[in-house]
Design brief:
- By secondary structure, the protein is α+β, with helices and mostly antiparallel strands.
- The protein has a single domain, classed as Pyrimidine nucleoside phosphorylase-like, C-terminal domain (Aldehyde Oxidoreductase, domain 3, Alpha-Beta Complex), CATH 3.90.1170.30.
- The chain has helices spanning 35-47, 89-93, and strands spanning 18-23, 28-33, 61-64, 71-72, 77-83, 100-103.
């Protein structure tokens, strides 16, 4: 896809200088991870812009370490926030308190399909 858009697929990607790990508040089964809230956090870290003239930090974003259906333990890393501007962590973290749910261990979880349908 990168080549098709005229990019160099072998180019080294930028890496943010600062990281902050978000850990599970409790042990159990990760049953929900809200993509909107995670996206807002990424934007607040500098991965996106509110206005076209706003700068974008190419290395900023959110790295996920668990997905819905995974068993997690209290304190286990769920995601790592990346930015070059550590002052942005507090603002980004405000988007995440309700971004995920952990149900008690043994809770059954029916994963949603990754692909709902294919359009030819």
């Amino acid at each position: 896809m990168i080549s098709a858009q005229g990019g160099d697929p072998d180019a080294t990607l930028p890496v943010a200088r600062e990281q902050h790990v978000v850990t599970a508040r409790s042990s159990g089964v990760l049953t929900r991870l809200d993509a909107y809230d995670v996206g807002v956090a990424a934007w607040r870290l500098g991965a996106g812009r509110a206005r076209k003239e706003d700068p974008v930090q190419a290395g900023a974003g959110v790295e996920l370490h668990a997905k819905p259906g995974d068993t997690v333990t209290e304190g286990q890393p769920l995601m790592t926030l990346h930015t070059d501007t550590p002052e942005k962590f507090d603002y980004a973290l405000k988007a995440l308190p309700d971004a995920y749910d952990v149900a008690p261990a043994g809770t059954s979880y029916a994963a949603l399909p990754v692909v709902r349908e294919r359009i030819a």
